[in-house]
Amino acid sequence: MPDAIVVQNLSKSFRRYDADRPQTLKEAFLHGLGSLRRLAPKEPFCALRDVSFSVAPGRMVGVIGPNGAGKSTLLRLVGGVGRPDEGEVTVQGRIGALLDLGIGFHPDLTGRENVFVNGVIAGLTRNKVARRFDSIVEFAELEPFIDSPLRTYSTGMQMRLGFAVAVHTDPEILLIDEILAVGDLAFQRKCLDQIAQFKAGGCTILLVSHDANAIQQLCDEALWLRHGQLVAYGPADVVTGQYVAEMSAETRRRTPTTRPSVHTPAGTELRVNENRFGSLEMEIVAVRLLDAAGFPVTELDSGDPLCVEIAYRAPEPIQAPIFGVTISQEDGFVCYDTSTAATGISLPAIHGPGCITFQIERLDLIGGQYYVDVGTYEREWAYAYDYHWHVYPLLVHSTGGEKGVLRPPHRWEFGGSPTHSADASMSGPE
To answer: Distance between CA atoms of 94 and 4, rounded to whole angstroms?
Structure first.
């Protein structure tokens, strides 16, 4: 299945003008030659620089970054609002955009009239809008005011109406720009529940928000922009943790580009902010997947034991770090996730080199390609020190014809009597 959104080498610039420039030629001539010079644009402002990423169908991706990072510009270009200076955007599916709630509304029209106008603009026929009208108004909680002019609505009421219209347009791709603060807490929950329903139904969602916690909780992946450039794109919890760490004045920062390239035994190069994330205050220096005899492996039979050996180095003392191991499929689906914290293990402060192992007595997974992701985290899960994502592949060979993900120890038995007493519920029809 093709990706729902593909962005390749996307760049976009805007022109800046003097704040006190003349608004008309007449005003410029009246104020002399100096005013004429201020009519010309200043240096261009680059909102996006060579941004590339793709989003698989049904995934929810959060876009984070400080003000001026290019988040909204990216969302508008994906939605077809404006043209890039370089690169291209390919979208597979019908787009529903929640870019600026209330844009397109006319203050002199009633709420009812605005619903019909905006529904048609969004691609619905008038009959479809009519059939969904009651649902739209009920969702917006504006039944008593729907026939009043929009100019009598508060800003919150207008935003609720805009959201209600947008989510009733059956989008296959939903673009959301900072709208999770719509209305009161109850209405915010309704909006989040609606977004969750879209996601469960296979809708691809691109969400821009300053709220790293919301991105972490709602999204599968996160995309981090800084000064129009892509900093990181990967698992939402890892990327948002790294973003929060960099934004925090209490967190020591290191410049990722100064790190040397590291190659893993599997031959995959570790690339910071692509398959390696974290502050690197503490580093994972080697990972080995071992079989029952202690030999390195990249393949196992279903049901075989597996040992994950993690070598680390902490140049400075690290208080009570957390180590984690995740086994996921190629599409990112998590089959198993655990950590020292999840199993009640509290590690002491560590300093210098060391090694920790994680032993699985039986890897009862259906045959297929998997990845063993490893990471070490701050003791309160505030951010990752070092996280390796989809670096260590593991091929599990099937020993049967089962389907699914889990292959628990099992057996079939034939014959004998039921283990519980026979009663009327067990007997057949007379």
So the answer is: 10
- CB contact at 8 A, 102 and 162: yes
> Which residues on adjacent β-strands are paired with residue 53?
7
Instruction: List alpha helices for 154-253, DSSP H.
Output: 155-166, 185-200, 212-218, 236-247
* Contacts of residue 427, Cβ cutoff 8 Å, sequence gap at least 6: none
- Run of H or E residues at 232: strand 229-235
Q: What is the rounded distance in angstroms from the CA atom of residue 171 to the CA atom of residue 426?
A: 49
Rounded-to-integer distance, Cα 362 and Cα 409, Å: 9
Tell me whether residue 262 is exposed, middle or buried, using C-beta atoms within 10 angstroms of its C-beta: 0 to 12, 13 to 18, 19 or more. Answer: middle
Q: Which of 112-116, 135-139, 252-256, 358-362 has the lowest mean pLDDT?
A: 252-256
CA pair distance 215, 199, nearest whole angstrom: 14
Q: What is the pLDDT of residues 343-398, one digit of tens each?
A: 888 899 999 999 999 999 999 999 999 999 999 998 888 788 899 988 999 999 98
Q: What pLDDT score does 351 carry?
A: 93
Closest by CA to 278, choosing from 305, 259, 301, 298, is 259
Query: pTM for the whole thing?
Result: 0.60
User: Among 88-92, 156-160, 278-282, 398-402, which range has the highest average pLDDT?
Assistant: 88-92
Q: Which amino acid is at 271?
A: R
Q: φ and ψ at 28, to 5 degrees?
A: -65, -45
**Order of strands across the sheet that contains 221-226:** 95-98, 173-177, 204-208, 60-64, 221-226, 229-235
Beta bridge partners of 221: 61, 235
The tokens of 68 are what?
């001026």
Task: Report d(CA 74, CA 69) in Å as an integer.
Answer: 10
